[in-house]
Amino acid sequence: MGKKKEFEQGITSQAEDFSQWYIDTILKTEMADYSCVRGCMNIRPYGYALWENIRDAFDRRFKETGHQNAYFPLFVPESLLRKEAEHVEGFAPEVPWVTHIGEEALTERLAIRPTSETVICAAYHEWVHSYRDLPILINQWANVVRWEKRTRLFLRTSEFLWQEGHTCHRNEQEAREETMLILDLYREACETELAMPVIPGRKSDAEKFAGAVETYSIEAMLADGNALQAGTSHFLGQNFAKPFEIKFLDEDNTEKYVWQTSWGVSTRLVGGIIMSHGDDSGLILPPRVAPIQAVIVPVFKDDTKTLVLEEAARIAAELKGAGVRVKLDDREGFRPGFKYNEWELRGVPLRIEIGPRDIEQGQVMAVRRLDREKTTIARGELARRIPGMLGQFQDDLLERARKRTAESTREASTLDELAEIVEKQRGFVWAGWDGTPETEAAVKDKTKATIRNIPLEGGQPTDGLKDLVSGAPAAHRVLFARAY
Amino acid sequence: MGKKKEFEQGITSQAEDFSQWYIDTILKTEMADYSCVRGCMNIRPYGYALWENIRDAFDRRFKETGHQNAYFPLFVPESLLRKEAEHVEGFAPEVPWVTHIGEEALTERLAIRPTSETVICAAYHEWVHSYRDLPILINQWANVVRWEKRTRLFLRTSEFLWQEGHTCHRNEQEAREETMLILDLYREACETELAMPVIPGRKSDAEKFAGAVETYSIEAMLADGNALQAGTSHFLGQNFAKPFEIKFLDEDNTEKYVWQTSWGVSTRLVGGIIMSHGDDSGLILPPRVAPIQAVIVPVFKDDTKTLVLEEAARIAAELKGAGVRVKLDDREGFRPGFKYNEWELRGVPLRIEIGPRDIEQGQVMAVRRLDREKTTIARGELARRIPGMLGQFQDDLLERARKRTAESTREASTLDELAEIVEKQRGFVWAGWDGTPETEAAVKDKTKATIRNIPLEGGQPTDGLKDLVSGAPAAHRVLFARAY
After folding, report:
1. Which of B218, B252, B277 is a domain's end point?
2. What is the nearest CA distance from A52 to chain B, expressed in angstroms?
């Protein structure tokens, strides 16, 4: 990551430079900043509070579907990492190696986990004996490291936080069902909690996880027209079970290898939220995961200060009682207009303004961050109305993102057409693909767009659909896009 | 850690070999096991669920006292680790060094964090400018690594999970108040949540944190008579602020260094719970943090199976509705007696037995893990009674631990006396100390007991109290013990 930029005021506009807008917004809202370690970030309290809410939203869903959390070591002995050939090949170039403890050289080098299939499979080898031990449905919240040449706050950092699910099943069908269950859980959580619509589908072989039989992903469309792979769910088959010898005695008294899945989402979701919803005034946070859902800004002069602050404190207490994450901004020495700007920058969904006249008239003013729409609310109805307004905000935010995604989705029938769309408008582009890695590579070379996935819905080739490059009959209808 | 031990049945008794009892209990209850990485453990779902509840109990208290969570990098560049001389000296021998990324050698080695003062101070250097930026009250939940020669599951592992608070203040008094606020928060949380009484006090200089001005600790007495340092709170003074140049412009327009604290508790608390409360039947878990607070074991024959299982499911739903973490053990093919043993081993506070006769009589039987006391409860009162019984269990468990700690606390007026107590009975031993490192070392050499701390209560020397070794007037009244 580059050097920190100093701010006079405001942030770069999206139209001028979307990437700079993104960085400005993160630094200025104190979501995160660059750390003393190349490629790693400090996640600051405001950004971490958002991540905690995202984590809890996903964690609740994992537990509701029968998964349990556990924790496995940070280190992977070299011999273990090398057990699955494709896996080590995929991750080795980015792996940090521990060679010494203090002054002493290790006899075997230790990798810092880029993902934990190998360490966890070594445990499962010990844990699984009988069909009664299955399924194993375990998830881990952890830090992982993949050393990146080019990094971007939240979207691509050398160390990141994530969850990784690792499951073992008795047969192929169960494992395939788990893969799809999680894919749909991810889709639903992204839409419900982050107001971020995503396209679930299968990755091409070129883009699948190192060691998987099949990788499925959810793909989001961001406001700048780039796609974001927001989560992946892998069907591992028996690719790890065999080298790690994870075997069980089945009911029929024969020994079998387990069938496995793994799946993850990470702190890059924070970047996805920022780039999905933000505008030139800064962040717009989905109420369900926003650290602060409503901010109260009292407006007063010296002679009305006590009156207004006391009423503002009562409102804060009432809203807190109604389950709203509320903040009262009672800082002295800042004008209300300054506070309005600051909380808009920080993306707080609702602002509640309260002054002496409002008190007199028994009302308050609520302002939506999304569209600055103002609503006068009777004082007595506040605790009832605000949760409803937050729900409406969440719905409207999702609807807006859906509309934007639909408008950014086009169709191409020739490579030139695809290239032009990708160059001028970005977004998703539907096109036919013959299923060969050659045509996939040819499109990427010419347009920098990749096959995001073969969508579960709409991924079947329509009659007469042809591959963009080869002109052969299409095997799939796929979504191309440039991606982060 | 050694090799896994295979079990035929049961666990070693505490009287026979307490250490082996501890290991047996952890492995057999599937709290954790030995991982493929030397000195690191796999925290299995049952152990991790306990840790999650401990984490949430502490986290709630941190937030209630104005602290916020954040996340900082895993890696510490070598030059940064070396900035505070005592600090690096204390940790360097146990630090893993990353020297390569993939095939490429790094120009500067990276340490894996043993604790995060250095990385966080580098951030605070950037964040703090004015007195308006203070105080900074930040906590991090993270993994850290200190490579240990001898390890013990949960109590001492090369990688462990913990929280580390790092705060900056405007003046010395505020920082000292924070140090003591956290020490008392730790004491209260250990007592309330873990039913583990602890002695708060100040560490001797020999035992303080590398880089601190003063270290305070909470010390628990375990069932085998060994002490456990369960948490520490450090007053760092300006020891880090100066080399890291964390300065601010104060209201009086002069530039000043901040005053700092740091503090932590870790997964060793899980070991503390096990060794505080467990018995020859296995774990006894405090209800407030137990993953399962009540287990329902249905007792039936073929002809009453449906009747009993349906009623058991209704009871489970009712208790869940009353906020109880309840599990219905409806596994087939296991006799009730087998299930009783298993849940006793796993330390579930209450067992609820329900059979056809109970249903007929409109009642259930509840059995307390602590003392196997049986209570008949009218069916209609269950949802009201069980939460109360869990509260009573928690109180009784704390009271029992308090009593045991009191009974294990003695007084010595000569070194021989201390040596005899420590050798024969273990426990805490009060004694006079002249405050010099020489006599402290002499006691340790002869008895293997160390000064656990100078307790906040009772640490003042009584009239005429003399140092055990030198015979000089005691500067403090301290607690000696052998410790994990």
Report:
1. B277
2. 9
Run of H or E including A288: none
pLDDT tier at A84, thresholds 50, 70, 90: confident
DSSP per-residue letters across B143-208 = EEE---SS-BTTTB-SEEEEEEEEEEESSHHHHHHHHHHHHHHHHHHHHHHH---EEEEEPPGGGS
| pLDDT for the residue numbered B87 | 84
Do the Cβ atoms of A159 and B74 come within 8 Å?
Answer: yes
pLDDT digits (tens, 9 = 90+) for A287-313: 999 999 999 999 999 999 999 999 999
Average pLDDT, chain A: 96
Mean pLDDT of B428-439: 97
Q: A416 and A360 share a domain? A: no
Cis? peptide before B455, omega within 30° of 0: no
The widest CA-to-CA distance across chain B, in whole angstroms, is 85
* CA distances in angstroms from A213 to A89, A452, B143, listed in the order given: 15, 17, 32
Dihedral of alpha carbons A12, A16, A17, A21, sign: positive
> Does residue B348 sit in the same domain as residue B213?
no
Domain hosting B430: range is 409-481
Tell me the CA distances in angstroms from A248 to A165, A213, B29, B399, one per residue in order.
Answer: 20, 21, 21, 46
pLDDT digits (tens, 9 = 90+) for B321-357: 999 999 999 998 899 999 999 999 999 999 999 999 9
Q: Does B56 touch chain A (CB under 8 A)?
A: no
Looking at the fold, whether B211 and B326 belong to one and the same domain comes out as no
pLDDT of residue A8: 42
Q: Tell me: do A357 and A438 sit in the same domain.
A: no
> Does the distance separating the beta carbons of A80 and B68 come in below 8 Å?
no
By residue count, chain A amounts to 484
Contact B377, B366 (CB under 8 A): yes
pLDDT value of residue B3: 37
Longest dimension (CA), chain A: 85
Given this model, what pLDDT does residue A87 score? 84
Give yes or no for A41 touching B (CB within 8 A): yes
**CB-based contact (8 Å) between B159 and chain A?**
yes
Here the CATH number for the domain that contains residue A417 is 3.30.110.30
Neighboring chain A residues of B72 at a CB cutoff of 8 Å: 35, 42-43
Beta bridge partners of B136: B168
Residues A235 and A339 in one domain: no
As a whole number, the mean pLDDT across chain B is: 96
Q: Does A387 lie at the interface with B, CB-CB under 8 angstroms? A: no
Q: Is B99 close to A99, i.e. CB distance below 8 A? A: yes
pLDDT at B9: 59
Q: A340, A358, A389: which is the final residue of a domain?
A: A389
A272 and A298 housed in the same domain: no
Mean pLDDT calculated for residue range A310-319: 97
| Domains of chain B: total | 3
- Is position B11 within any domain? no
d(CA A56, CA B121): 29
Angular region, A209: left φ>0, alpha ψ -120 to 50, beta rest: beta
Q: Give the pLDDT confidence of A364-394 residue by residue, as tens digits.
A: 999 999 999 999 999 999 999 999 999 999 9
pLDDT band with cut points at 50, 70 and 90 for residue A85: confident
Alpha-carbon gap, residue B55 to A357, rounded angstroms: 46
Residues near B249 by beta carbon (within 8 Å), at least 6 away in sequence: B129, B130, B131, B255
pLDDT level of residue A7 (50, 70, 90 thresholds): very low
Residue A289 inside a domain? The answer is: no
Same domain, B298 and B272: no
A260, A238 in Cβ contact below 8 A?
A: yes
Give CA–CA dist A351/A285, Å, rounded: 13
State the pLDDT at residue A9. 60
φ/ψ bin of B464: left (φ > 0), alpha (ψ from -120 to 50), beta (otherwise): left
Q: What are B122-139's pLDDT values in tens digits?
A: 999 999 999 999 999 999
